Amino acid sequence: MLKFDIKKRDGLARVGVIHTPHGDIETPAFVGAATRATVKALTMKEMHELGSQAILANTYHLVLRPSPELIEKAGGLAKFSSWHKPTFTDSGGFQIFSLPNVKISEQGVKFKSHIDGRNFEMTPESSMQAQWQIGTDIHMAFDHLAKSESREDMEAAMRRTHQWLDRCVVEHKRLEKKAKTEQYLYAVVQGGTFNDLRAESAEYCASKDVDGFGIGGVFTADGMDEMLKTVNSILPENKPRHLLGMGQEPIDLFIGAEYGCDTFDCVGPTRMARNGSLYTLDGRINIKNAKYTNDFTPLMEDCDCECCQNYTRAYLHHLFKTDEITAKVLASIHNEHFIVHTVDKIRASLLDSTFKNYKVEFLSRYYH
RNA sequence: GCUGGAAUCGUCUAGUGGCAAUGACAAGAGACUGUAAAUCUCUCGCCUUCGGGCUUCGUAGGUUCGAGUCCUACUUCCAGCA
Predict the structure, then answer these.
(1) Which pLDDT does position A147 carry in this prediction?
(2) A301 backbone φψ class: left, alpha, beta (φ>0; ψ -120 to 50)
(3) Which of A104, A171, A193, A307 is the most buried (most CB within 10 A)?
(4) What pLDDT, on a 0 to 100 scale, did the predictor assign at position A127?
(5) How far is CA A362 from CA A263, A314, A368, in A?
(6) pLDDT surpassing 90 at residue A336
(7) How are beta strands A138-140 and A87-90 bridged, if at all?
(8) pTM for the whole structure
(9) Span(s) in chain A for CATH 3.20.20.105
(10) Does the domain made of A3-266 have the CATH classification 3.20.20.105?
(11) Does the CB of A109 sit below 7 A from strand B?
(12) Residues 298-337, chain A: which have Cβ under 7 A from strand B?
């Protein structure tokens, strides 16, 4: 069983430590999105230095390339990628369901590789097997994503996710018995925007022998707080909860932490960075805008990342306008640092009971 | 000096009688949430009450209902020959 210690509680919010074979994660924490076993534009050393505690890779992408077998041969994701800290994998469900022409059945999902059209099939069992081979510390159950936001589709997706969860648990246990390493399984809560479905899903997941929970299919919207309140009031307190895919907008992190989520992952920070949209305490700015041509101030005051400590907005603007690779590197360092540290500060503020103030202060300035 | 060829939006470029005029780049702005995303979208002669109006394809004339496109002269550039 994955060890999770809670140090402090404040309503549904909690500060804790997830103990994994590759080290501890102080929570709440932002987990970097390393979809293809790399955080785009960044080296693992840079990720480490900017303060990242964990990364999340994607089973779908790694099944296509280079294959779970190869990563297993390399000694697992941590060794393969030289990230010697905790690792997560997403099951691949989310990606597969976003592909065209997927054939979904009780058994699993048939799809074509977006790279070369090869036929693949992924089932709850094969996702578990792949994640064990990839060798991450924490695996997500293979879930089913609704094809629309309608109640009918959401409910169908949730039921399928629950059926598949049972199979994921069985397969996980089977693989666990013959494994040399310890790896853990999170169930995934579905239910869309319907709180009764969310409650049902949370209850179902809570009843299973899993190590933690992913909360999937969440979008920023009014009602996210209510939804999380519903779900996290039901999920057992002593197991960690991961809010899947959320973290591009700081408000999501505040709400997520406030209502009991422990970890987050999101492609937003690095994608925004590559596209020139950079976080500051006063909101995101587009560094490519002409007004930064002569701005010789740091991207953000009071930021101790490598980018802000050494370079100006004018320089970043120049790197982006000339399409230099370094533009994306420095921007990614900053954005990833910004989000990681925002969550770090949320954790610190929960510990010293200043969360409410920090939240109001941060959000009122950020969203001016 | 002679003989050819060429001059089109910031740049390169399409266009051989119906054209505010092609494409790319540049420029300006926007989007992005479990990454088919170093991607995508919009604007890009001037004005507009969004119907349209006005002025444009080296310069000046001409032919034609109509000219970026045809003719003449001039200017500049390129190539070849002197």
Answers:
(1) 83
(2) beta
(3) A307
(4) 97
(5) 20, 26, 10
(6) yes
(7) parallel
(8) 0.94
(9) 3-266
(10) yes
(11) no
(12) 321, 323, 325, 328
